Amino acid sequence: MSESSARILVPVGESSTFRNTVAYAVREARRVASETGEEATVHFVYPVRWQLVDEREQSVAEEVAETLDKARVWATDDLDYDDDGELASEDVPVSIETAVIGEDRYLFSPGDFATVLLDYAADRELDRIIVDPEYRPGGSAPMLQPLELELARSDLLVEEAPVERVVERSRLPSRANVSKAVTMFAGSFTFYLLLAGVFDTFNLVTGAVSAGIVTAVFSRITFVNTPDASRFVVRTVRFLLYVPYLLWEILKANLSVAYIILHPDLPIEPEMQRFRAAIWGDLSVTTLANSITLTPGTLTVDMERDSLVIHSLTQSSRDGLEEGALERAVRFVFYGRSAARLPSPAERGAISSLPTTDDTEEDA
Amino acid sequence: MSSVDRPVRAYVESTIIMTTARIVSPFVFTFGLFVMFHGAESAGGGFQGGAIVASSIIVVAFAFGIEPTRQWLDDSIFRLLIAGGAAAFALIGLGAMALGGAFLEYAVYNISHGVKYGIELVELGIGATVAGVIVSLFMNLAAGLTNDADGGDET
Amino acid sequence: MALEQMSTFETLLLGAAGAFAAFAVALLYRVVRGPTMEDRVIAINAIGTSTVVILVLVAAALDLPGYLDIALVYALLNFLASIAISKFIVERGGVL
Amino acid sequence: MTPLEYAVVGLVLVGLFFSFVAVVGIIRLPDLYTRAHATSKSDTLGTVLSLGGVALLFGAEVSGVKTVLLLLFMLITNPTAAHAIARAAHDQGIEPWTKSDEEGE
């Protein structure tokens, strides 16, 4: 196919179809690369509209970093899945890059945006641009169409990602590979021997048979990302540091809940809130959500695209949530100490209360 | 209730449940196999182990939905399991008769620990059959549900 | 094993198991009253956890390690039941 | 009784207390979301403490390992089960109880 290319540029920004655009770009890069043997690469770039040297500096920079972070995590997740099911045998490497562009210029018109994007593409020899149909480069102003026209004047390939809003079908089997299989086998075998308690021939043989079966069935299910030995060790160590902290929090939570429940007046003021946690990826979100459920007066009710819906029992538990100590701890476990330094959810404005939809029907 | 007011959005599976299922089910599956293999000396055996194995699969099916589970495990696998389990049982049983013993008389196999391994193989066969039957029953019942929803389409 | 021959320690463990059994019975109130299906599931889940603890306490008091396997299976079924029922009561189509 | 047995009984009794709190909470709290708080926190801790006590008694042998595995399993699945139930309720559109509901009655 001559008109396709595996070197793709994707301008990104928050939008309702952002997730699907990332998925489409990664899928296309892999498809074309496996057909042509080209070296596949996807660049996610964020054109910033304002000079970063004004009072909004901090919040804008954070939002940009957050968006690019998300794109990277999602893209890496997608690389481990097989949407067509046909490419399972060959593993096509796709490199993922993220960048912020246009900090050094004033971006006002669609033409400005197009210029910085095209410059970037020319520098990195990218020859295909995929645009998110809901992308709003200039904030709220509808300038996508003029932007696409401007981009199309170059000789690059420009297209809109074909995304629909409700395609969130959960994907189950990811790609199989050796490292997943080895990890799975080791985990299952250890577990079997722990259960058996005796290391005789019989247990070693049946344990190996069992671990083999488990590996065949589950290695593509349990892991989304390919396990990486060094990262695994680091995370395990950090997680072990996290456990005592979590236990302490659980104990505190229980004493306060016990006080509330046994108090004759039942002093509760429940409320639902939406919390945009700065955490992405299945495992880390689950850790955070279950930690929230276990600790002071808060319960994770639902999980939407990028936010958790949390039911809290009292005002003091809401204050605890706003300080964001748990979020920071989970970020420490998964992303390291530097990532743990982050403004609290209250400062970021990440928590909003969820309005009750039908206040009139209370007597029902 | 006021379901009219609420915006219609697609039902999305919960990441939290999915991840928990991902982590827990392989261990449950291993436990099921452990129970199958240790039927000889403790509470357990092929039937119980097969049921545990099947429930680990059903946990995944509940967390992810029926369609992705079908993509993961094809129906033919279960047919193979059911047939293979029964065949293993029959082969070992009849093999003993061929060697001049009674049906399932393991002692006639002249291997060291022949009795023990014979029992375990039979248990594994029973377990495979039980797990296969339970999961394929579950899948077929669920298929009935989704077909009705497609045909009726009322809510 | 007759009760008189048991040590204080074993009696205490069995007593704790009895208390958990009493909790399970008390929770039946919520199962019967409801009012919603979810309330019932919550109560059933709590009864299930109590049952697991009872099994483990009995295993410890009477030294019957076989009960631990049953407790493990019970815990598994308890989790499966909670997920299964909470998916089935979602009113919208496409339950599975 | 040996000191170990005192420790075990102590843990089991504290666990018993938290499970009692959970039971009172499930019966007494006004709506299902608040009741889910009771199961996810108090019941989990009650279970974990009781099982921890028993694991201490069994020590480092197969039974002890099994009890610890059971404990971990409960610790992972209990909050997930509470989430599953609360999510189903939220999805059905059941509104959480608020302070004003009580005053309205």
Structure explained in plain terms:
The complex is a heterotetramer of chains A (364), B (155), C (96) and D (105). Chain B is mainly alpha-helical. Helices cover 72% and strands 0% of the residues of chain B. The longest helix of chain B is centred in the last third of the chain and has 39 residues, at 114-152. Chain B starts with 14 loop residues before the first helix and ends with a helix. With 96 residues, chain C is mainly alpha-helical. Chain C has one domain. The N and C termini of chain C lie far apart (49 Å). Chain D is mainly alpha-helical and 105 residues long.
Number of helices of chain D: 4
Query: Runs of chain B with pLDDT <50, length 5+?
Result: 1-9, 146-155
- Rg of chain D, rounded, reads 17 Å
Count of the domains of chain B: 1
Which features characterize this protein?
heterotetramer; A: 364 residues; alpha/beta; Rossmann fold; 3 domains; five-stranded parallel β-sheet; 12 helices; D: elongated
What are the SSEs and their pairings?
The complex is a heterotetramer of chains A (364), B (155), C (96) and D (105).
Chain A: E1 7-11, H1 18-36, E2 40-47, H2 57-79, E3 94-101, H3 110-124, E4 128-131, H4 144-152, E5 157-160, H5 178-196, H6 201-222, H7 229-262, E6 271-275, H8 282-294, E7 298-303, E8 308-312, H9 315-323, H10 325-335, H11 337-340, H12 345-348, E9 351-353
Parallel strand pairs in A: 1-2, 1-4, 2-3, 4-5
Antiparallel strand pairs in A: 6-8, 6-9, 7-8
Helix pairs in contact in A: 1-2, 3-4, 5-6, 7-10, 8-10
Chain C: H1 8-33, H2 37-62, H3 66-88
Helix pairs in contact in C: 1-2, 2-3
Chain D: H1 3-28, H2 32-58, H3 62-92, H4 99-104
Helix pairs in contact in D: 1-2, 2-3
Compact overview of the structure:
The complex is a heterotetramer of chains A (364), B (155), C (96) and D (105). By secondary structure, chain B is mainly α.
